[in-house]
Write a structure and sequence with these properties.
Blueprint lengths: L8 H9 L5 H19 L2 E4 L1 H16 L11 E5 L26 H8 L3 E6 L33 H8 L5 E6 L5 H7 L2 E4 L19 E6 L2 H11 L29 E5 L9 H16 L3 E5 L8 H22 L6 H7 L6 H24 L2 E5 L12 E3 L4 E3 H4 L6 H5 L3 E8 L5 E8 L4 H14 L14
Parallel strand pairs: 2-3, 2-4, 7-8, 7-9
Antiparallel strand pairs: 1-3, 4-6, 5-6, 5-12, 9-13, 10-11, 12-13
Helix pairs in contact: 2-3, 7-14, 9-11
């Protein structure tokens, strides 16, 4: 068999089930890549190599004995170091929690283990997930596999970089203003933010309870569907979880987009926009038309008046969570996070007004989705900037990086809608460009079906970064 790290999750799962591929062989291949590439990539904070080998041996024995659990059985995966793992330190990319070792797994981690997945380790991120660059002042910056001097995006930067560099076959990230979709877009892979309440946040260190989501970062849309099906579902330990059935997401994933109504909200989402990003997204729109989708412009979804409301809600909830640590150990925070935590705390009336504003925007998006099945936008307004640059190049203008990176993803945290980012092109400099698809609440199936149809009609997901030695 060729290099097993060339396989998608779906392909590896089929090979394991048919016993053409050993879970231990697959795990060793990923561990070898981690050892070789980590000095340049810095995608991991903690590598659990011996535990991974033990889990892989156990999976191999179970599969050989006819106890196959499903498509994640024996699959090597990584976790953003925000998910609590029993007996394995969970740092949140911080000095504050550098020695934090949870006693129990969070809900989604437990579900992955029950599915037979093999944990390779905990992945690097922006400190406490409070930033979108993954320039971590305690553990070092994560590097973009396509151009090592550039950011991978964040805050789930290590998780996306590991997927693209083939140092994990599947990962889980979190998304508060875009932290799954931003690194997926800038690093060139697939990232899915499910509907709010679809995936449990129990055992996930919070940034903003209102805006946080957990979801998969993978190589393909089908792989994301496999992971989502394993981790989704009601959890009584999470007060935000919603009791609603979890579909078999792969069953209809090949259904195509013929007749699907795809709305393009141009106000806000297409201005400002880097010229190469605009060209790639417009080309993607034509692919959807060519596949039989009914593509039309939609009005009334300008998020500009609501940006500050989203920022204030996130800030208030983050300041509440960090209040004691920031009072007692302010010097243990990195500069970018400390600056955000030190900002003026929103007053009660200001916070209530912000929550009402976000509710109004949510209703506007839901109304738009009564007339269309999906919304299509760019994921990012510009390509990945260099580490330390501080600005996002949007063509005719540059935006401060903290504002620019979350600009086009944050609306769907405010609404809680499912949103997917997948590759739709590359700049002349070889940097990835992302396409964003958002859908109705709890209709991840349609989002995944549309993303899969576009992915199968294009070749972007097959490219591999030249910046790393892959063979």
């Amino acid at each position: 068999m060729p290099d097993p790290t060339d396989l998608t999750l779906a392909q590896a799962a089929a090979a394991i089930r048919s016993r053409q591929l050993s879970p231990l062989e697959l795990t060793e291949a990923y561990l070898a890549r981690i050892e070789r590439l980590e000095p340049r990539l810095n995608a991991y904070i903690t590598v659990t190599a011996e535990r991974a080998r033990d889990d892989a041996r156990r999976a191999e024995t179970e599969v050989a004995g006819g106890e196959y659990r499903g498509p994640l059985h024996g699959i090597p995966f990584g976790l953003k170091d925000l998910f609590e793992t029993a007996g394995i330190r969970t740092t949140a990319g911080s000095k504050i929690l550098a020695d934090h070792v949870p006693a129990a797994d969070g809900t989604v981690v437990r579900r992955l283990r029950e599915a037979g997945a093999v944990l390779l380790g905990k992945q690097n991120l922006h400190e406490f997930a409070y930033g979108a660059t993954s320039e971590n002042q305690h553990y070092g910056p994560v590097h973009n596999p396509w151009a090592l001097a550039h950011i991978p995006g964040g805050s789930s930067g290590g998780s996306a970089a590991a997927i693209v560099a083939r140092t994990a076959l599947a990962t889980l990230g979190t998304d508060t203003a875009g932290s799954i979709r931003i690194p997926a877009a800038l690093s060139g892979c697939v990232g899915l933010k499910p509907t709010r309440g679809r995936v449990s946040k129990q055992g996930v260190i919070p940034l903003s309870w209102t805006l946080d989501h957990a979801g998969p970062i993978t190589r393909t849309v089908e792989d994301a569907a496999i992971v989502l099906e394993a981790v989704a579902g009601y959890d009584p330990a999470d007060s935000s979880a919603v009791r609603t059935p979890v579909p078999a997401y792969r069953d209809g994933i090949d259904g195509g987009v013929k007749g699907l109504r795809v709305g393009v909200p141009r106000a806000f989402f297409f201005d400002p926009l880097h010229d190469e990003v605009r060209a790639a997204v417009e080309a993607a729109i034509e692919v959807f038309r060519g596949l039989g989708a009914d593509v039309r412009d939609v009005e009334g979804l300008d998020f500009e008046p609501f940006v500050e409301a989203r920022v204030l809600v996130q800030r208030a909830e983050a300041q509440h969570y960090h209040e004691r640590w920031f009072r007692e150990r302010p010097g243990d925070y990195g500069a970018s996070v400390a600056e955000r935590l030190a900002a003026p705390t929103p007053a009660t009336l200001e916070l209530v007004a912000s929550q009402r504003a976000l509710a109004a925007y949510t209703e506007a998006v839901r109304a738009a989705l009564e007339d269309v099945d999906l919304l299509l936008t760019p994921t990012m307004a510009g390509p990945a900037p260099k580490i330390g640059t501080g600005v996002l190049d949007c063509g005719r203008e540059s935006i401060p990086v903290g504002v620019g990176l979350v600009r086009l993803t944050q609306p769907f945290n405010a609404t809680g809608s499912p949103a997917l980012s997948l590759p739709c092109g590359f700049t002349r400099d070889g940097l990835p460009i992302g396409l964003q698809l958002a859908g109705r609440d709890f209709d991840e199936a349609t989002v995944l079906r549309a993303g899969h149809a576009y992915e199968q009609a294009t070749e972007w997901h097959r490219r591999r970064p030249p910046a790393l030695e892959f063979r």
